[in-house]
Amino acid sequence: MKIEQIYTGCLAHAAYYIENNGEAAVFDPLREVHPYIDRAKEDNATIKYVFETHFHADFVSGHLDLSKKTGAEIVFGPSAKPGYPATIAEDGQVFEIGEYKIKVIHTPGHTMESTTYLLIDDQGKEHGIITGDTLFIGDVGRPDLAQHVISELTEEKLAGHLYDSLRNKIMPLSDDLIVYPNHGAGSACGKMMSTETTDTLGHQKKVNYALREDMTKEEFIDALLTGLTAPPGYFPQNVLMNIKGYDSLDEVMDRAIQPLLPDAFEVVATETDALMLDTRNAEDFTKGFIPNSINIGLEGSFAQWVGEMIPDVKQKILLIIYPGKEKEAITRLSRVGYDNTIGYLDMGFDAWKDAKKEFETSKRITANEFEKSYIKEKPLVFDIRKKSEYDSEHIIDAVNIPLNEINKHLAKFPKDKSFVLYCAGGYRSMIASSILKQRGWNQFVDVIGGFAEIAKTNVPKSEYICPTTML
């Protein structure tokens, strides 16, 4: 069967493209739709359907733009109520793509409209299942997102629905089916997803904790909800955009591609409530940045950290970016619903310096410098990694404040004495540094290379050692 997984690592997102006899379908597309259109052109095919597995929370889907540009029919599963024209399929309904068949299997639990699509090839053989956030490799979808939109849909109720969907709809299917999920490791839509992005259903039945055959519903609900951290704040806002509709990416891009010379940039920054977002790497940012700007580097998990650190998707944004990276940054912001970029600094930060504008710097130290300081002075140390990373291994006496919780705990950072920040690899610590600088803190440093470099030194660490993921 001709199926292609189109994986976007920075969002840990998988869309799917299938084609047969000049007809194509796309499942769960990202906001920028030209790659799917170009892919269909390669096959001389017409995109007939855009299938959505559910109303996504972690990204804004490209179904509306893809439908508008190609005439493709948007399809949701049972109980979906979008605010725009779409086909609401019935459980068991079959759609045709050339000689392929797509069978709708309603699998509520992650959300009530969540749907799995069974793929049947031109010989009538069941090939695989596109599971959305119902079933991941090594995990299942979190059941606590819908309650942020509809309060009565509690996480316990949805977990119960998910248990029934998995046992009654998914697990009876053939073991040789290939599982095609919507996300892989790194997504906030689950808690223990594998780095693998496909597997057979039979193997998942053996290794996925949530598919244990003798598991009771109570055991399942407890296992699913234990250790579930709060979802990123932008998730409910993305859900509503996917339900109600949104501006086309072309409109977003037209508004955002506004090059501003330093004087004009300064005026706009002063006269609006726009947030100045510097997307350069940490090393360049620390050498010089515009006062009150924050740093979230484009080279990392950019969209996810924007979503974590900027509470309102409607926030106006001014970009400081490397020349030539403007469209990439705007596109990646729009993937998670941040559609209000109103301009960027023309020719980047160098233009700001050349114009003799005021700028600030931030101090960083190497792991070896930190080791010497730790032995001599034993400074106050903040570990801004996730709790799970901290629990695996950390510097003795370090205070754990995860980056996504920093704004709730600003009072814990002293202004009258110095301290040190570290993360896993130095990306998150610079985000934290920029936020603290913006709020008036100055007596601190962060560690270049983070815990990955500190681990090579003799700084005392907790005894239990487990590999951490560098971000």
Walk me through the structure.
- This protein has 471 residues and is of the alpha/beta class.
- It has 3 domains: 3-237, Ribonuclease Z/Hydroxyacylglutathione hydrolase-like (Metallo-beta-lactamase, Chain A); 247-354, Rhodanese-like domain (Oxidized Rhodanese, domain 1), CATH 3.40.250.10; 364-454, Rhodanese-like domain (Oxidized Rhodanese, domain 1), CATH 3.40.250.
- It is 30% helix and 20% strand.
- It is built from 16 helices and 22 strands.
- It has helices at 34-42, 63-70, 155-170, 201-207, 217-225, 235-244, 249-256, 262-271, 282-287, 302-309, 326-335, 348-354, 367-377, 387-392, 427-438, 450-454; strands at 3-8, 13-20, 23-27, 46-51, 73-76, 87-88, 94-97, 100-106, 115-120, 126-132, 178-181, 199-200, 259-260, 275-278, 294-295, 317-320, 341-345, 364-365, 380-383, 399-400, 419-422, 444-447.
- The strands form 4 sheets. A 6-stranded mixed sheet has the order 1-2-3-4-5-6, with helices on one face. Strands 7-8-9-10-11-12 form a 6-stranded mixed sheet. Strands 13-17-16-14-15 form a 5-stranded parallel sheet.
- Helix 2 (63-70) links the parallel strand 4 and strand 5 (73-76).
- Helix 3 (155-170) packs across helix 5 and helix 7 crosses helix 11.
- Keywords: Metal-binding.
- Residues 270-361, 375-463 form the Rhodanese domain.
